[in-house]
Each structure stands twice: as structure tokens, then as C-alpha cells.
Amino acid sequence: MTLVVGGLQVACTGEESEQIAATGLDDAALLTLLRAAQLLLPHQRLATDVYRDAMLQLSDAMTNDARKKQAIEAGLAALNESASWLDLSTEAQKSTLAALESTPFFGTVREAAISGVYRDERTWQLLGYEGEASKFGGYLHRGFDDIDWLPEFGDAQ
Amino acid sequence: MSRTYDVNDGSVVVVIGSGAGGGTLSNELAQQGIDVVCLEAGARLSLADFRNDEPAMAAKFNWTDPREGSGEMSPTRPTYICKTVGGTTTHWTALALRMAPHEIRGRTSYGAIAGTELIDWPLDYDELSHFYGLAEAKMGVTGTNGIPRHPANNNFKLLNAGAMKLGYPRSETANLAINSVARDGRGPCQQLGFCRSGCVVAAKWSTLYTEIPKAEATGHFELRPESMVTAIEQEADGRVSAVLYRNRDGELVRQKARAIAVAGNAIETARLLLQSTSVLSPDGLGNQNGLVGRHYMRHVFGRVLARMPGKVNMYRGIVQAGSLEHEAHHDPARGFASGYHIETVSMSPEGVARTLMPQEGWGESFADAMEAYEYYAGAIICGEDFPQASNRVTLHDSRTDQYGLPIPKIHYEKNENSRAMLEHAFGVVENIYGALDAEKIYRTPSGTATHNMGTARMAADEKEGVCNSNGRVFGVPNLFITDGSAFPTSMTANPTLTIVALAIRQAGFIRQSMVERAI
Ligand SMILES: Cc1cc2nc3c(=O)[nH]c(=O)nc-3n(C[C@H](O)[C@H](O)[C@H](O)COP(=O)(O)OP(=O)(O)OC[C@H]3O[C@@H](n4cnc5c(N)ncnc54)[C@H](O)[C@@H]3O)c2cc1C
Ligand code: SF4
User: Fold this and answer.
1) In chain B, how long is the greatest CA-to-CA distance?
2) Which pLDDT tens digits describe chain B residue by residue (519 residues)?
3) Complex ipTM > 0.90
4) Which of B123, B264, B308, B388 gives a 20 to 30 Å CA spacing to B442?
5) Contacts of B238 by beta carbon, 8 Å cutoff, 6+ apart
6) How far is the CA of B189 from the centre of ligand 2 (A)?
7) Structural domain boundaries, residue A35
8) Cα–Cα distance for residue pair B44/B31, rounded to 1 Å
């Protein structure tokens, strides 16, 4: 299945559709969360998959966390209260989302987006973080001390 | 080789916790031929379980049992400790610093400080220095015992350069309990930068692969992992005689003991004393003056992240490579007593995200700030904290954990002196980064403590503390405190070297007391 959200292509394999089904979140709900995550952490060069995976994790976590589930359901309802949120302009989406800043929904989605997106190796590549170091013997021979723009102070550092 | 002892064998010393304090005391006693049973709430991992992956390791070794914070502490995650064999030494970043001579006489050096119950340590600095020397040799601390210091990584070179530009003298990398050369059967540091995820090459000192196996090799030591002590039993004559613990199958076991040492990392130590009630001690062991749990200290603490004009890649290499001590002295002219260290620290993208969040909010400005990840330098402020009776650990009156025990509550607020100190420190760190043209600087106070001290403090006067200078609890001749709980003040230094030095000293005292048949 291919879903289109705000010009972004989201490919869903059969396996992931099952995961969505298991949480009781329908596709539209998942796409809404995905879009919210993109607005919260808008990295232009980051693949949509990264956000989607983060929100799938949230959706999984909801299945055995009643409080999270309730927060998400309440937030989704609030976002879509006067119009279908996904159909709004980006600016209108942002202001509707901003109005929810102090709700548990906002906090839950932001927390899930931060832990999901910034623990993802695809994000690390974008940010220039090299992560796991043991596989290449650490940074001992890979630039742990390669800073070259500091002022000199007479003797070597 | 590793032994097993019968639960009714009342000749053993029971040590509770296998981290810096408990792991060290266990080994020191076993080396002298004293039989020790060490009960550790967490599981035993091996080097093969370690990953260069912070969240994955946190899931393996963090203490996640519920706790409640109030005041300036995070309500849900007030402290950070590990529940695993080796305790928080699996996770610590290995700065191994000594207390300064003026700090041991806090009350004398600083005078009365409003809102605090400051006392002197009941110890002589020269004597403590001797034990610092032994601790440094044990842990292989760089810059001591002829062990070379580590080279500076980017994050520390930058901090040092900024300080020098402001006119401070050059600093060397810190005294670290991380091998710079092969030593004690362990290899040198590879500058992996994952010191907090368990050092996969074991260059960093942790009791998991030093003290514990050495104790096992003596044939006088048994480690029981996944054994959570729930109470200590006291007899009518004041002595403690046994502990109760839940084993890995959830069964309640009673282990008899000749003497008991508690090293659960301050919060758990106070909690265990408070919940161990008896006819003699209706409010908990050692709590006849209502002081157990009080005087909790966590250091005057703050984090700074600075966006620099050039790349830093702070994550490369030793997490806490250096500590600037230019402001560690006592100079009341600065508007506060005592001083602080400025220590480098690195953060993963997730750590940076959480630090930026309060100021950058969300949306474009947040994402832009994150995309400068390679350009950040990071440091923490670690300053001396003074004891306040209202900063304390108590037992919750209704919430219990998976063992059915009341969960600990931790309340902490800074006093006048700490607030002034932190403000000064943030200013100095900002000037240091500013001297190298930092583009933006983020200050973060921290609601999650990594150092826990003071909750069963030692004192010369029985009315002012819970234990004496050997960590022996007043009124309980065979019960000992073997962790930061016993500290009367926090010192500016990070706590672990002092915990280890005191554990070595205490082992000698326990042995002597056994020889004299006092215990
Ligand atoms: C991120 C971080 C970085 C740090 N870096 C430094 C540093 O650079 N320098 C420094 O000096 N210090 C540092 N520390 C602090 C250092 O980790 C502690 O000072 C030290 O580990 C404390 O030793 P301990 O024996 O008191 O407790 P721990 O090492 O935490 O060990 C306590 C053990 O007791 C067990 N336990 C608790 N209660 C019970 C019970 N009831 N029954 C059975 N077992 C129990 C726990 O599971 C744990 O394994 C750092 C801490 C953190 C979190
Ligand atoms: S930087 Fe050194 S001490 Fe830290 S994890 Fe790596 S090898 Fe171990």
C-alpha cells in the first residue's frame, strides 16, 4: 500500500499494516501522528520512514499503556475538531498543533518523536554522529583529537 | 575459587550492593581471608553484553524501580543509578578526583552557612590521603602512581583553549580511572566515547571485572546477584544478625551475618535503614536522632552546551576527559563559599535534543539547532553542596514497588549559597566558550542526580550524624555504611574515589574489630 501525505510518499508493507491494525489506530491516525512528528522535528533531508518508524513504536507502546492511548486519542480528536487536520495548509496545521502544546498528547508525541528519530542511525548520518565505535577500534585513530581551528598558546597541547 | 555459604552461617560479613563501595569492601575483606556474601539486586552482565548503544544499555542496567522526586528533582526520575553487578561503576565516566584539604573541615573553613547543617568531616586529611593513594593504585588512576595521563580529545582541547584565552593556566587531562596503558590485566582506552554504556574493552575501572572476580579468586567470597535486600534484622542487644532478601525467584530468604555493610548508593541505603524497624529502632536503624535520609546532597550541578563556529565532534573519545579546577578553591569574594569544577561531557544526538528542547521548542529553529550537532561542545558544573535537613529521602506512605516495599521519595532544593555558586559557574563557562566565539550557549539545570550523598552521614558527635568515621552506625556495633551516604559534605570532587578510599579504610577497621572480637 502506498499512502500520500502532504506530498510525502509512505510505503507500507503488509507486516507494518498488521502492526497498525494491532493498535486500533487506523491509517489516517498513523499518518496524522507522522505528520505531527515531521512538524515537530522538521529535518528536510530526513527520510519519511524515520518518522514513520518512530510513530509505529509509539503506536506499539500504546497497546499496553492506557494513559498513552487516551492521550493520543484525545489529541487526534482535538486536531480534527473543526476540519480534517491532514487537509489543512502547513501553516494551519502548525497553529492547530501549537494550540495543543500543553496537552498530554503533545508531550507524548514529542517524546516518542525525539527518542525514535534521534536514536535512528539514519538521523545520525544526517547529523554527522558516527555512533557505534567499537567496530572500528574507537576514535583513537579516527579523529578524537583532530580539532584544527583553535588558537595556539605557545606550547603544544 | 568462588564459594557458597549456608544461609544459616552467621560467621559471614554480608555486603549489600556490589558497586564502588560494596565491590571494593567485599574484595578488601576477602583478600584478608574474611568470608563475605555480597547481595546485589541486579543481574550479572559480562563484557559481551556491552554495546556501544546508550538506550540499549540503559535498558540492560539502569535502576528503573519507581521513585518520586520533589523540589528541584524530576518527579519520575530523580536519580540515575544502575542495578547490576558492578553497580553504577559499569556506567560512570571515571573521573577519580581527591577532595581538597580545606573541604574536609567544611564548617571550620567556611563558617556557618545559612540554611545548612554544615559540619567538619571527623577525619584527618593526611590519613585520608594515605587511603586515596591506595584507591588510586587499585583503580589505576592516570596522573598518579606513574600512570601516564590520557591525551586530550576535541571537547577538552576546546574547553582548555577557551579558559587559557581568558587567562587561566593550561590544564592537563583529568585523573581518570581509565587505563592509558595496559594495566592490571586490562587493555588501554580506545577513545570509544561510550564510557556510559559499559566499557567494551574494560579499560575503565568497574568493580564488575576488577574487585568482584578478584574477591572470587580468594575463595572467601560469594556473590548473589538478583538478590534485593528488603530488611536488616536487629537483636535486643543492638547488634544486627541477619538480612532478608528476595531472590531471583521472588522467594524471601534470611541470611545470617556477623556484620553487615550497606552500599546501595545513598538513596537505597537510607531507604533500607528506614524500613528496617525493630523494638530498639522503631523509626529505622541508626535513626534515633531522626537523621537517616536527611542531608541528601547531589552536587551543585548544571550542564552547558555551546554551539561553536567550527566542528568539535564532542562524542569522540573519553566522555569526561578533563576537569578545570580554576574555580574550585574557596574565595568568599565571589559571593559564595567553596567552589566548583568544570568538567567536559559529551552528549549523543538524543541528549543534545533534550538539552536544546527547553530553549528551541520545536519546528524549524529546533531542527536547525540539531543539524549543528557536530559543532557543539559540552561541559558540566560540579560544585560543593552543603547538607540541609530538609533535603531528604523518605518512604512513600502509599506507593509500593514490585517487592511490596514503599518507594523512596527524594526532596531537594538548592540553598542561597548553591544558587549563587551555580550562577557564577554558568557565567564562567559561558565566558570560556564565548572567548572562542560560541554562537549560542544553552544552560540546563538537571533534575536527575548522578551523585548521591549525605543520607547517613558520619560525624564526630553522635547527635549530629548516623555513623562514625569508620562508617559504623551509632548504636549498632556491627552495621556499617559503605557509600556516599556517609559524606558530611559533598566536596567539589566527584564522589567515587572517596567512596573507594573510605571502603579500603573501613575494611581495615572491620578486620581489626574482628581480631579484637568486638564484632
Ligand atoms: C552518568 C554518571 C556518570 C558518573 N561519573 C562519575 C565520575 O566521573 N566520577 C565519579 O567519581 N563518580 C561518577 N558517577 C557516580 C558513581 O557512579 C557513584 O559515585 C558510584 O558508583 C557510587 O558507588 P556505590 O557503591 O555507592 O553505588 P553503586 O555503584 O550505584 O552500587 C550500588 C549497588 O547496590 C545495589 N543495591 C541497591 N540497593 C540494594 C538492595 N536493597 N539490595 C541489594 N542490592 C542493592 C544496586 O543494584 C547497585 O548495583 C557517575 C554516575 C553517573 C550516573
Ligand atoms: S572512551 Fe575509553 S574508557 Fe570510555 S568506553 Fe571507550 S575505551 Fe572505554
Assistant:
1) 71
2) 679 999 999 999 999 999 999 999 999 999 999 999 999 999 999 999 999 888 889 999 999 999 999 999 999 999 999 999 999 999 999 999 999 999 999 999 999 999 999 999 999 999 999 999 999 999 999 999 999 999 999 999 999 999 999 999 999 999 999 999 999 999 999 998 899 999 999 999 999 999 999 999 999 999 999 999 999 999 999 999 999 999 999 999 999 999 999 999 999 999 999 999 999 999 999 999 999 999 999 999 999 999 999 999 999 999 999 999 999 999 999 999 999 999 999 999 999 999 999 999 999 999 999 999 999 999 999 999 999 999 999 999 999 999 999 999 999 999 999 999 999 999 999 999 999 999 999 999 889 999 999 999 999 999 999 999 999 999 999 999 999 999 999 999 999 999 999 999 999 999 999 999 999
3) no
4) B388
5) B280, B475, B476, B477
6) 5
7) 2-132
8) 22
Contact yes or no for B193/B316 (Cβ under 8 A): yes
- Name which of A42, A144, A157 is nearest B316 (Cβ-Cβ): A144
Specify if A89 maps to a domain.
yes
Which residue, by CA, sits nearest to atom 5 of ligand 2?
Answer: B195
**Cα B373 to Cα B313: distance, rounded to the nearest angstrom:** 8
* φ, ψ dihedrals at B125, nearest 5°: -60, -40
CA of B190 relative to ligand 2 center, distance in Å: 6
Residue count (chain B): 519
Give the ligand at the shortest distance from the Cα of B150.
2
Residues 438-477 of B with CB under 8 A from A: none
B13-515: CATH topology: FAD/NAD(P)-binding domain (3.50.50)
* Three-state DSSP state, B85: coil
Instruction: Answer yes or no: do A140 and B193 touch at CB < 8 A.
Output: no
In a domain, A55, yes or no: yes
Say yes or no: CB of residue B264 within 6 Å of ligand 1.
yes
Determine, yes or no, domain membership for A150: no
How many domains are there within chain A? 1
Whether the CB of B195 sits within 6 Å of ligand 1: no
- The whole-model pTM stands at 0.94
